[in-house]
Amino acid sequence: MAITSAGETGTAQPSEAAAVEILMNRGLRNMWYPVAPGWMIGPAPVGLTRLSENIVLWRDSAGKVHALEDRCPHRGARLTLGWSLGDRLACWYHGVEVRGDGVVPRVPAQANAPMEGKRCVRSYHVEERAGTIFVWFGDSLHADPAELQLPDELVSPEYEAILCTAHWKCNYRYAIDNVMDPMHGAYLHAQSHSMAEGDKHAEMRLRKTDTGFVFEKANQRGVNFDWTEFGITNALWLRLEIPYGKQAGPGGAFTIVGMVVPVDEEHCRVFFWRIRKISGWQKDTWKFMYRARLEKLHWDVLEQDRVVLEDMAPQAREHEFLYQHDAGLGRVRTTLLKAARDQVKALAAAKSAAGEAPRAAGVA
Ligand code: FES
Ligand SMILES: [Fe+2]
User: Fold this and answer.
1) Are residues 76 and 167 in the same domain?
2) pLDDT digits (tens, 9 = 90+) for 184-202
3) pTM of this prediction?
4) Which of 141, 177, 301, 302 could connect to 329 by a Cys-Cys bridge, CB 3.0–4.6 Å?
5) Residue 88 CB burial class (10 angstroms; 0-12, 13-18, ≥19)
6) Residue whose CB lies within 8 A of the most ligand 1 atoms, among 56, 68, 75, 83, for a mutation test
């Protein structure tokens, strides 16, 4: 089956249910995703797989990051193997040049090649925020991006964030489920420096917010990992607090904002920003102290999550026996499933209205 992007197919058409499943497994479209920390992208081309698509990214001389499908339009060599000429890449195989907008300005091996001046490569919209590269993954009906809205803690100068990111060998949905399950803090992380306290038994409840909902313990707050928030603002994010005394740093609650990008159906990259509400000279001091005293402990906790998730039984989510504490992840699953169905239906409707398959997003 020729897949042009998740949920959009070439010749053979999957059933609606199969298209929804593909979309759910590879990642919903029409959203911004963090794809890499900013420091990872320099002038040399970098190849990444995100939402099962191969992408090449590089930073031009003005500092702007570009992202293209990692495929030369001539004969399909990886553009990642080529080199940067500033605002464009040159393919290693025969030197074809591709600009950041996907247009081929030059075919050095032949005069007046038909490729010249044409947009031959899919390009992606890129934003750099909070020290992180975000890419818009639209379907063919949403090639132009919606506004990227991130939680205040990532964009307001009142906060300082330290990014921690890791590659996990599990589907991205497990990483979301894990954060939507605060109760695991009191068990999986029971020996941790920050989650050893509090009740091992709780009543959980859901509370709606403007951008999603909060899933929280009904009778405990500020003791352990007691609540988690799910938000969709043209990007999917999670927010939680870890309790710390004043000795662990200034600025009130220690907040964590989490996001995840699917790599492919069996891998993902998680992004966790550790955040304090601080300003001025305290920012640098806090960062130094955090790195010296706490970061290693947090990595240890994150490793506990990674080990459990990577070792889950095959197709674990198809053989579950959920209880009330799983209502948060259940609500997220329902929300994502509805969004996936809506996206598949909209594509099918557009296709039947046009009497043809919609073009893959971003291709001229
Ligand atoms: S394959 Fe890239 S220039 Fe030929
Ligand atoms: Fe955890």
Assistant:
1) no
2) 988 999 887 666 667 778 7
3) 0.92
4) 177
5) buried
6) 75
